[in-house]
Amino acid sequence: MAVPNHSERRYRRDLQDLCDLSRSPMLSFLQKLSPPAVPRPRAVAANPVQYPKLAVFASTRVWDWIKEYVQFRLGPKHAFRFYDGGDGDDGVYQLKGDAQEIRIALAADWGTGTDEAESVAQQITAYKPHYTIHLGDVYYVGDPVEVGENFLGIPSPNNQYAPVTWPSGSVGTFALNGNHEMLARGVGYFDHMLPKLGLHGSAHGQRASFFCLENEHWRIIAIDTAYNSVGTPVIEYIVKPDCTLPKPHVEWLRDIVRPRPEDTRGIVILSHHQYYSRFDVCYPKPARQLAASFTRPVLWLWGHEHRLAIYETASMPGGVTAIGRCIGHGGMPVDLPTRPKADYATEFLDNRHYPNDENLKLGYNGFAKMTLQGPELALDYVDLHGTEVFSETWRTEHGELVRTRHWEMAQT
Asked: For residue 75, with 0-12 CB atoms within 10 Å meaning exposed, 13-18 middle and 19 or more buried, which class applies?
């Protein structure tokens, strides 16, 4: 493939090329090759291609698909990384910030390379966070080149799209694993992304795909639901992966994080996959594994579904009780509310139509601002223009989470 002239880069990816993206490994590799290598002129982009995926069946692209599938999909997945204690890094870090507050920016499914992802990044930067945390998914398949283009700001040698860069926090920058990173066996994530993340000043970057940020009032625990979200080629279509937390991960929770009944700090769980959902499948296995360590309700933020959804408190048999928040609207085309598939109640859904220059019927992209002020934790959910659409404040009383304030945007 000829190397494009990078001096001609002007535009980022179009949302239309990411609409209806399959979670199937084979189809994700197919759709990766559908967009043109050269960005469309704006007048053309405003008229979405009716059948964009058919472009992959051109003879040259079918051959490219076979080569990429064999190169990135076949073979063993990257070894799971964990904390061995050899250098004193156990994955538990003390939260640091200003004298008055600690600011944490959270976004999921952001790694798309779209203008919307860039707008979200700019809003995150304007928030001046001490920490930024991406909850997973770099598209289409999270291979090393895509990790560079859609997360690290490195131009791709295969196209003329302008890259995007995940914004850094002043103290630390972290990223969770996502199922799309694992479509390319996790190589881009573990070998190319993690070394550039972590606490600033760290010699090795982010050591593993799970970690804990804590202070005297709160524990923010990030878990890896993605490593076992993709299975063995072909077999995964028969035996569905269940996002089980790997054994070293569970042992870390038990032996290093060590939740204890007398520890009354509030617990926030971060993951890529949803525990429960009103619109999609549920992934209860990690919640059942967490139940061995956490007996009180937890505040749980996840991505994977491309929407903003504020859920009522819920649980599944054998799993922890969770106050669920879906924030998978970072950069992918956002799904507007559809007919529910399950009875999990939502308190708030952002059902506004996002006016876009591609004339697509989509919702608004955005992210969450988490602000810690002593015993209080505030969550403000904002869109890509910085408009606040839902806000809530939490504190703990005798170990129980209590919401002391909330506000939501009125919608027509």
From this structure: exposed
Structure confidence by residue, pLDDT tens digits, 14-57: 999 999 888 888 888 888 888 888 998 877 778 777 656 656 55
Of 22 and 63, the one with more pLDDT: 22
Q: For the residues of 122-173, what is the DSSP string, one character each?
A: HHHHHH--SEEEE-S-BSSS--HHHHHHHTB-PPPTT--PPP-BPPPPSSEE
State the architecture of 92-408 in CATH terms.
4-Layer Sandwich (3.60)
Residues 6+ apart with CB under 8 A from 316: 275, 276, 282, 284, 287, 288
The pLDDT of residue 345 is above 90: yes
pTM for the model stands at 0.95
> What pLDDT is attached to residue 67?
83
Cross-strand partners of 232: none
Residue pair 107/120 in contact (Cβ under 8 Å)? The answer is yes
Structural domain boundaries in the chain: 92-408
Considering only CA atoms, which of 201, 137, 212 is closest in space to residue 172? 201
> What six digits make up the tokens of 74?
């076949």
How much is the pLDDT for 362?
97
Supply φ then ψ for residue 401, to 5 degrees.
-75, 130
SS3 labels along 314-349? ECCCCCCCEEEEEECCCCCCECCCCCCCCCCCEEEE
Residue with tokens 């507007």: 336
Q: Which of 326, 232, 243 is nearest to 283 (CA)?
A: 243
**CA dihedral over 289, 294, 297, 302, signed as positive or negative:** negative
